[in-house]
Design goal:
Chain lengths: 219, 195, 365, 587
């Protein structure tokens, strides 16, 4: 199998398989979580704060006062990585075409120079976060195989995509195939690793906000 | 019926619900909860990272309530929670958490760690891993109405206009002193606290 | 009359009325094609002058004659220059005068007279499904290729069919078509893919062999690097628009007229290695992208099965919706099953609940 | 004395053709035409996006490299009811026209000429006399004695190397060669000139289609956007459409180059091709009496001026002629279930309903079944199946398609330029109209229609320029581009007149995928084997009665076969099957 055949496999059956596993897993895991139900809080609510859960979904994206100074690497690294990754993912025209091919939705892209900058920023942020994870005693204690795997799964598409775009290797089709395959691996494992936070984060934040709301605490 | 490991795990199973599952699913091990925990900030000991305190509960959730975890347990890939483990976690769950709620306020993915600590304590208690002092206090509270074991006469003595101390009122004091010294002896071992 | 086997090219050229200037012009073209310095023109001329016209046998199997047509479009060297002055094209269905038995005799004679020295050119794939799927003079393609390859110095597989199986081998490959390299294992095989290959690429590879007597440097797909070393996308005049994010959305919108990038219209330039964007076609007139149509990727193995031509390269090559819908249903089903199991477990836990009394707090086991 | 003649490979054609003939005393009693290569394109096409079909279908043939693409996009457009913009119609006409002119000239000089021209004899020519001959028939510039002397010297040097290459084993010196050495020399010169000319004039395809062979097309119009802005102020004075240089190949420079190509085409056709045809034909008048064949002719019609749905606007009319009767033209309907049928009685295919059934292409079946002898073999069993070609019939009749059919249709319809050209040629050769029904009649018809097309090219070009000047730069209709706009089921036929004759592709589309694709091509009509009733095809009929001087040098057979300009890869196309078994048929 040469690079192009691998690419065609990755664009065809591979993509279908990965997306299938991803969607399968996301739905399975979501049902699994939500179907556990909520243990009722028998205490009377101290306050009625409608929409607290929804508000928290958004408000939790900002660092609480003082935290930025306390953990600058985690916050800045996290922001740069997430924004860079999102810009690269959602505003590179070939990616938009992929989304159009799957969902039929489309929007204008950004010039490649900006995408390039966003990718580099995301890559550097990920490297900084990796070093942080290796050095910081708390993170190191909390980290297990799943954390290193998740990092690698996220880093691989950025690195292979960057290498493909800049033709670092002679065989472009193969590089592109590896890029797509790395994304497919990411998609397939997303529901079953901590990467599932891209979905469960919304539930977690909502519950948190809702619970806090009953206590009359603004979150 | 005495406390037992089975009862503890059973309680874990009872308290794990959708919020808990979503919290554990969302954790990215960023460590920010530690940055807000006084036990960590004062000691610098990573084991006080709040999410770390919930590890037995997390594993119970994973093994009991997720497909992947059930399979992993079947395949022997995920080691089950043990009584010894719970014993080891007891100081973390009880003595190293003041339930101040700061971690729940900063967690970027929205985990309510305080809630989970509270839930975990239900199981820990059913397992008999509540701290000895707390058990005593609780027993006293139930039996005598005062966790500190203060009897009505003592209260009366305290509330009546000052008189020279009597032998009866003096006899109540050593008990409370003994309690507080027991609590301080359970201080975390690795403490470098200057407090 | 000179002895035919020792007939050097310069003498032939002189006798054929081709001036020294014409000859050096050809050498300069060759030097340019191979990105050699101008100073090498003399060396090329010297090499060519010593070379007698090499015997070339051209076999056509499962093909459409597009490759031969392309050969005739070559400007430098031109096809008439090639067949009169540079090679002795001893067998070629479409161009040779003789037919039938006379044609086959010419092939036999050339193979015998030039054993071990002739160049074998093949266009078209070889069907292995049934020997009757393609025959010439009652002979199967497989037998004819094996017979002709035996005495060849090297084999040039011209066109994507010969190089990689091409159209006949496209899914579901009804005739079991294979590439030349699947059959010829003991001889050097140069792949010159393209549907068809660019005219001067065909003649350029022949000229390289004639000039240097060796094979050009090949990439991992057996293609000469000098012509297939760079992707069309990298050398495309529309590349700046790709980088600026300017794309034609349809074939005659503003972007299409302004020459914006054709990526969204399915251009396969990024994964296609060929000289189209630099050499261009038909004496540098244009190439597919310049004429408004995305690259089909025709010099790449398996390009027919790369997914729909008008689907952007980053789009799924095959529809994923059905798989995803099925997976979603399966996910929901398994999720519900797990949910029921979980609820059962939780209900059991609740049933096993025992109120914790103070006497229970202490472990007495 | 009866003997079996086999010519395989028939060279100087496209594809793999085998002719077997039964000779009696040097005369052909029966001839059999066999296509010996199959690829399976139709199976390959099934399940694919109909918008992609043209690229696959185009690779049916690299010689008539635009025609299958055009037929294919028209089939899809017919099925999906897509109309194309005026500019796209003109661009397609220009490309089809250029294909004809290029292909016919190359056929005459590079494939057919060696049947009439003895290359070796040219060495004996007197360059001065050759020059005089050339100047007497044409005002072509390259005709000085020095020019012919140079060509002769070049040829001499080549021949003296002893390595004749492609000319090895030609039938040089065969008594059937009748041209004087000077005419041979002139023809050899034009053989070489033609090679240079053809690679220059393909620039038109390269501009409008990106490359040649296999230029690009698109369903719904032309892929090339017009990079000229009618409302662009441009630089300096003059027509305001002079802006927008360089976006695509179809800019002001591209247009000018197309004009230059058209000029070069017309000059070569007028000054070289037409005079050479008439001059050479003058030496072979007996070939205006044989090789006639069926006498039935079929045209689908092409080169529209008011859209493909309006046959009254076609340059080449549609219709059928039976038994040489030019007074009665029959209507042809490609959709009608009872008109065009394909048979497999003598082909290596099976039909579910039996070998003798005929099927309309929409309902065609594909069951590949090679029942011939195992290679290597000597003879084909002509009583049974002997070809990869199917046998198409129109209302049960064997038909000839191609230039002769078209010229006869034009002539019968009273097309003024055709009447004038035919009249001129017949007068010059001193022949009656019936001489057209012959080997050389076919070759002459090809030359005359080339002249008609070369003149028409200018008209299409002028119309395109006028449109652009008027502000119309539309080349593509995207209304039905997305498959979501298509009906669940659709079927259509795309027809055209290819250089070798009437060509049509039938397509059936279900759920945006091809479920059936069939091409019935010119060489299938002409080169197909016998039908169940034993009726011979056009090649087979035309060869009957030929007298061979020497069966080892069957020059006479080649003359007649080449007069059809065989294109066998085209003829061996594919149909498909309706049940779920996996079967292939290429015909």
């Amino acid at each position: 199998m040469n690079g192009l055949e691998l690419l065609t496999w990755a664009r065809g059956p591979g993509l279908a398989l990965a997306l299938g596993i991803c969607v399968f897993g996301v739905i399975l895991r979501s049902v699994e979580i939500l179907a556990l139900g909520r243990k009722p809080d028998l205490a009377p609510a101290r306050a009625v704060t409608p929409g607290s859960g929804w508000r928290t979904i958004f408000s939790r994206s900002l660092p609480p006062p003082g935290m930025l100074r306390r953990a600058p690497l985690t916050y800045l690294g996290g922001y740069v990585f997430h924004l860079g990754f999102a810009v690269t993912l959602f505003f590179f025209v070939p990616h938009i075409e992929l989304i159009r091919g799957v969902l039929g939705l489309s929007w204008p892209g950004l010039p490649n120079s900006l995408i390039d900058a966003a990718t580099i920023a995301a890559i550097l942020a990920m490297i900084a976060l990796l070093i942080g994870r290796l050095v910081d005693p708390v993170k190191r204690l909390l980290s297990g195989g799943g954390d290193w795997l998740a990092w690698a799964l996220t880093f691989a598409p950025l690195a292979t995509g960057y290498a493909a775009y800049h033709h670092w290797f002679e065989n472009y089709a193969l590089t592109l195939a590896l890029h797509i395959l790395s994304i497919e691996l990411l998609l397939a494992l997303l529901p079953f690793t901590k990467l599932f936070h891209v979905v469960s984060l919304f539930m977690a934040r909502w519950y948190n906000g809702d619970i806090a709301g009953r206590k009359g605490v603004a979150t | 019926m005495s406390a037992s490991f089975e009862r503890g795990i059973n309680a874990f199973k009872e308290v794990i619900d959708a919020p808990v599952a979503s919290f554990f699913s969302s954790c990215v091990h960023c460590g920010l909860c530690a940055e807000t925990c006084l036990f960590y900030t004062e000691t610098g000991d990573p084991q006080y990272a709040p999410i770390r305190k919930l590890e037995p509960l997390r594993r119970t959730w994973f093994q009991e309530y997720t497909l992947l975890g059930r399979l992993a347990k079947l395949a022997g890939l995920s080691k089950p929670v043990t009584d010894e483990e719970l014993a080891a976690w007891s100081p973390l769950v009880y003595d190293s958490c003041s339930m101040c709620g700061r971690c729940s306020m900063v967690c970027p993915v929205g985990n309510d760690l305080t809630l989970m600590i509270r839930k975990m304590r239900e199981g820990m208690a059913a397992d008999g891993h509540a701290p000895e002092g707390l058990i005593t206090a609780t027993t006293r509270a139930v039996t005598s109405g005062s966790p500190a074991g203060v009897k009505w006469v003592t209260v009366q003595a305290q509330t009546t206009p000052m008189k020279p101390p009597t032998a009866a009122s003096r006899s109540a004091l050593p008990t409370s002193r003994a309690n507080s010294s027991a609590a301080s002896s359970r201080r975390p071992r690795n403490s470098r606290s200057s407090a | 009359m000179q002895h035919p086997d020792n007939h050097a090219l310069n003498v032939v050229l002189a006798e054929a009325g081709l001036s020294r200037r014409d000859f050096l012009g050809f050498c300069a073209t060759l030097a340019a094609a191979y990105a050699l310095p101008a100073s090498s023109v003399g060396a090329i001329a010297a090499a060519l002058e010593k070379a007698p016209r090499a015997s070339v046998i051209w076999l056509s199997f499962q093909e459409c004659t597009g490759c031969t047509e392309s050969l005739t479009r070559s400007h430098a060297p031109s096809v008439e220059g090639l067949i009169l002055e540079q090679i002795s094209l001893d067998y070629h269905h479409t161009l040779q005068a003789a037919s039938g038995a006379a044609a086959e005799r010419a092939r036999d004679a050339a193979m015998r007279a030039n054993a071990g020295k002739y160049l074998l050119v093949v266009d078209g794939s070889i069907p292995l499904g049934n020997a009757g799927y393609s025959t010439i003079a009652g002979l199967s393609n497989l037998d004819m290729l094996k017979e002709a390859a035996q005495g060849a110095a090297a084999v040039i597989a011209v066109g994507t069919c010969a190089a990689y199986g091409g159209l006949p081998a496209a899914d579901p490959n009804p005739t079991g078509a294979v590439a030349v390299s699947a059959i010829v294992k003991d001889k050097p095989v140069i792949n010159v893919p393209g549907c068809p290959p660019i005219p001067v690429v065909i003649t350029g590879v022949l000229a390289h062999f004639l000039t240097f007597g060796t094979l050009p440097e090949l990439d991992d797909l057996g293609r000469p690097k000098i012509f297939y070393g760079e992707s069309i996308h990298d050398r495309c005049y529309r590349r700046p628009f790709y980088d600026q994010g300017k794309f034609a959305d349809t074939f005659d919108d503003e972007g299409a007229r302004k020459g914006w990038c054709l990526f969204k219209l399915g251009c396969k330039g990024p994964v296609t290695y060929n000289a189209c964007a630099t050499t261009k076609w038909n004496n540098g007139v244009s190439f597919p992208i310049q004429s408004g149509h995305g690259c089909l990727g025709c010099s790449e193995p398996g390009f027919w099965d790369m997914g729909p031509f008008y689907q952007a390269l980053s789009m799924p090559a095959t529809p994923v919706q059905k798989t995803v819908a099925g997976a979603a249903a399966a996910g929901a089903a398994v999720g519900v099953a797990v949910a029921f199991a979980n609820r059962g477990k939780k209900a059991a836990a609740k049933a096993a609940h025992q109120a914790v009394k103070v006497e229970d707090l202490e472990k007495k086991s | 004395m009866s003997e079996r003649l086999v010519i395989d490979p028939v060279t100087r054609i496209e594809g793999h053709l085998r002719i077997e003939a039964q000779l009696k005393n040097g005369i052909i009693e029966e001839a059999y035409s066999a296509g010996t290569m199959v690829r399976g394109l139709e199976l390959i096409l099934r399940g694919r996006d109909p918008r992609d079909a043209w690229a696959f279908a185009q690779r049916i043939c690299g010689v008539c490299t635009v025609v299958h693409a055009v037929a294919s996009v028209r089939a899809v457009e017919d099925a999906l009811k897509i109309t194309i913009p005026k500019n796209a119609e003109l661009i397609r006409n220009l490309m089809v026209g250029a294909q004809y002119i290029h292909d016919h000239v190359m056929h005459f000089y590079h494939l057919h000429a060696l049947d009439w021209v003895d290359v070796v004899s040219a060495l004996k020519a007197d360059p001065k006399a050759a020059s005089a001959l050339a100047q007497s028939i044409s005002r072509h510039a390259q005709s000085s004695p020095g020019y012919f002397a140079d060509v002769q010297k070049r040829l001499k040097g080549f021949v003296e190397t002893g390595k004749l290459g492609i000319f090895q084993n030609g039938y040089w010196g065969h008594p059937a060669y009748k041209l004087p050495p000077e005419a041979n020399l002139m023809a050899v010169a034009h053989y070489l000139e033609g090679l240079a000319w053809q690679r220059d004039v393909v620039a038109l395809h390269a501009i409008l289609g990106g490359k040649n062979p296999h230029p690009n097309f698109v369903v719904g119009g032309a892929p090339i956007a017009i990079s000229i802005y009618p409302d662009h102020p441009g630089r300096g004075k003059g027509p305001h459409y002079r802006g927008g240089q360089g976006g695509t190949a179809l800019d002001v420079t591209g247009l000018a180059r197309i004009q230059a190509v058209i000029d070069a085409m017309r000059a070569f056709v007028d000054n070289v091709y037409v005079p050479d045809t008439l001059a050479i034909a003058g030496f072979y008048k007996d070939w205006f009496k044989q090789g006639e064949g069926l006498g039935n002719f079929l045209c689908y019609g092409d080169l529209p001026s008011r859209g493909i749905d309006d046959p009254t606007g076609f340059l080449f009319p549609r219709g059928a002629i039976l038994n040489r009767d030019l007074s009665t033209l029959h209507d042809v309907d490609l959709d009608a279930d009872d008109q065009i049928h394909e048979y497999v009685a003598h082909s290596w295919y099976d039909y579910a309903g039996g070998k003798n059934k005929g099927l309309h292409p929409y309902r065609g079946e594909t069951t590949l079944n090679y029942s011939g002898p195992k290679p290597p073999f000597e003879h084909l069993p002509v009583e049974q199946a002997y070809s990869w070609l199917k046998t198409p019939r129109w209302k049960g009749q064997a038909m000839e398609v191609g230039p002769l059919a078209r010229v006869l249709m034009l002539y019968a319809k009273g097309h003024a330029q055709t009447k004038e050209l035919v009249g001129m040629a017949l007068k010059k050769l001193d022949l009656p109209v019936s001489a057209l029904f012959s080997t050389l009649g076919r070759t002459a018809a090809r030359t005359l229609e080339t002249k008609i097309l070369a003149d028409a090219m200018q008209g299409w070009y002028d119309a395109l320029v006028a449109n652009i000047k008027a502000g119309d730069v539309s080349t593509f209709n995207d209304a039905k581009w997305e498959p979501s706009t298509w009906p669940k089921h659709a079927q259509g036929v795309g027809f055209m007149e290819a250089p070798r004759g009437g060509l049509a592709h039938w397509i059936v589309i279900d759920d945006a995928k091809i479920t059936n694709y069939q091409a019935v091509v010119p060489s299938t009509w002409n080169a197909g084997p016998r039908d169940p009733a034993g009726q011979a095809g056009a090649y087979e009929a035309a060869l009957q009665g030929h007298v061979l001087h020497d069966p080892a040098q069957p020059l006479e057979v080649l003359r007649t076969i080449h007069s059809f300009d065989p294109c066998i890869a085209c003829a061996v196309h594919l149909t498909d099957e309706h049940d779920s078994t996996y079967e292939a048929r290429i015909l």
